[in-house]
């Protein structure tokens, strides 16, 4: 397997190889929503405040963000800037390892502890993606690459912090739905020893013709929430009101989005949202943690959120099976979630 990073560095590319060129409208960057549309901002310190008025106002803001955008910027989250910087640095060091060191993790199966690769599913992808990835199952069992030497320690601390943030956000989201604070965490077992957390690091190497290639095509995420940070290079775009919006994170902020299983659980009230990664002439790194229930949990619409006389809008599915379904296909919009939709 030749990664995109190796391709760029070994050949000295001046143009995009034909098998990386997107010829469809999904790669068209012109359908952009004019500013000043900006993604909502949620202050985590107010969400966890002991002041009931502040917390109540923030829960309303959080619910609005989930309902209207499915994305929000999280500030004052309590993760030290030094730890975030170390996480970026150590992840970059992994992608900078010699090819033979990284190939230890190539060709692994979906639920193997650590997996390194390129594109999304090269076996079925019609056009290859301008992206190399590192995927690590970090909970319920913690895993890490053996190299670089400092990665494991930083990774463990970072993932513990983001699990705590996800738990608090889900309490606020539960309340925004008119449910008890503990509802989602208990129903999905998010705070249990078996809850699932997957870290996905995406490296988008410099691209000589960024208008022709795609880092990740439009897609939605599995799980309940994804917590994302990046290295300061723009590239994330979110579908909002039928147009693409470029997201420019505030310094030291996380980007959080609702996933497919949040849409299933809320019976479509809080939807997962299409987003994509475009590429640049500068290298971009993103690090996301996807938070979901235990792999054997069947996720179906919450009874409390199914309106009388309407019925559930989605079939229930075991979380593990949903991940298998997603990985077996090309990455295309919300095609996996469409398999579970019911006519109501």
Structure description:
The structure is a single chain. This protein is α+β, with helices and mostly antiparallel strands and 344 residues long. The protein has one domain: Sandwich (Jelly Rolls). It contains 10 helices and 14 strands. Strands 1-2-10-7-12-5-4-3 form an 8-stranded mixed sheet. A 4-stranded antiparallel sheet has the order 6-11-8-9, with no helix packed on it. A hairpin with a 2-residue loop joins strand 8 and strand 9 (243-246).
What tags apply to this protein structure?
4-stranded antiparallel sheet; oxidoreductase; IPNS-like_sf; 344 residues; 8-stranded mixed sheet; single chain; Germination Insensitive to ABA Mutant 2, Gain-of-function in ABA-modulated Seed germination 2; oxidoreductase activity; globular; alpha+beta
CATH fold name = Jelly Rolls
CATH superfamily: B-lactam Antibiotic, Isopenicillin N Synthase, Chain
Which secondary-structure class do the elements indicate?
Answer: alpha+beta
Oligomer: single chain
Question: Main beta sheet, described?
Answer: 8 strands, mixed
Counted by DSSP, the helix tally is 10
Write the CATH architecture name: Sandwich
Query: What is the level 1 CATH name?
Result: Mainly Beta
Helix content: 25-40%
User: Residue ranges: pLDDT <50 for 5 or more in a row?
Assistant: none
Strands, total number: 14
Tell me the distance between the termini: 45 Å
* Global shape: globular
**Strand/helix succession:** HEHHEHHEEHHEEEEEEHEEEEHH
The largest beta-sheet arranges its strands as: 1-2-10-7-12-5-4-3
Radius of gyration: 19 Å
User: What's the rounded overall pLDDT mean?
Assistant: 92
Number of domains: 1
